[in-house]
Specification:
The protein is globular. The protein is mainly beta.
Length: 262
């Protein structure tokens, strides 16, 4: 009997049962789907290194587009829509030293309307969100050829800023999530309406759910949710109140994937 119990224990330890997973609702194949997607009540926004496109949520029809013609932007990573503005996180990846900024666009026209420079911080900004009156920005570090200044992905951090962009607090990511990210880092993230942090890595079809710790400086890993989309920058559709709807991407075949977590 003792051997049987140990066998069961080993089975459940090595074969976790996921309480939730993402179920595909629809997908849109679009030519330039490489970095991420943002979403608001009526549209979704495809984000690439130096270009953006705006599409209707019903059929994926393009309604606006923007492309950098200055050569000043290198690597738009992700975006979040807030009050009619699309805030895109930008970095000079894979160049070093790492420098980052937030580039701001009007959602109606996709016209570039503003910029905030972080300059040189210990990491490359990959995603940002505004929650409870503060900005939350993830700064990625890598354990491969993109590693910089002797840092590996354990240096990835979440930083809290006030509205004047003054740094207030920061947290490291837990070892379990860093291992899932490896050798890359976090590529997308946002706050959920449940007060938890949802984030993705570079390519795994997984969503990591975290919370701020009651004490200490390490985020707590609550659960991992299997997804249809494959890492990169994603968005939670906040216009849907009763469900958890995700917009994500698959890079190899250029799809925007809409799914529901349940």
């Amino acid at each position: 009997m003792r051997s049987f119990v140990l066998l069961l224990s080993c089975f459940f330890t090595t074969n976790p049962v996921f309480a939730q997973k993402a179920h595909e609702i629809r997908r849109f194949q679009l030519k330039e789907v490489k970095q991420g997607v943002a979403v608001d009540a009526a549209h979704f926004y495809v984000i690439n290194n130096t270009s953006l496109s705006k599409h209707t949520k019903t059929d994926g029809k393009p309604v606006a587009a923007w492309r950098d013609t200055t050569g000043l932007l290198k690597h738009l990573n992700s975006g979040v829509v807030l009050n009619g503005k699309l805030y895109c996180v930008h970095s000079n990846y894979p160049e070093v030293p790492m420098v980052s900024s937030i580039e701001i666009f009007d959602t109606e026209t996709l016209r570039h309307i503003g910029s905030h420079s972080f300059g040189m911080l210990p990491g490359s900004a990959t995603w940002a969100d505004f929650y409870q009156g503060y900005w939350w920005v993830a700064f990625a570090n890598y354990s491969d050829k993109a590693s910089a200044e002797g840092r590996d992905n354990r240096w990835t951090m979440l930083v809290k800023f006030n509205t004047n962009w003054e740094r207030l607090e920061s947290w490291q990511f837990p070892a379990t999530v860093l291992q899932a990210f490896a050798p890359k880092s976090t590529s997308g993230g946002t706050w959920g309406k449940d007060g938890l942090i949802y984030c993705t890595g570079h390519d795994k079809p997984e969503l990591y759910v975290l919370k701020l710790p009651d004490r200490g400086s390490t985020l707590q890993h609550l659960k991992t949710i299997p997804t249809v989309s494959e890492g990169q920058a994603f968005a939670i559709d906040r216009s849907v109140k009763s469900k958890l709807i995700l917009y994500g991407i698959t890079r190899n075949d250029n799809f925007v994937v809409v799914s529901e977590v349940k």
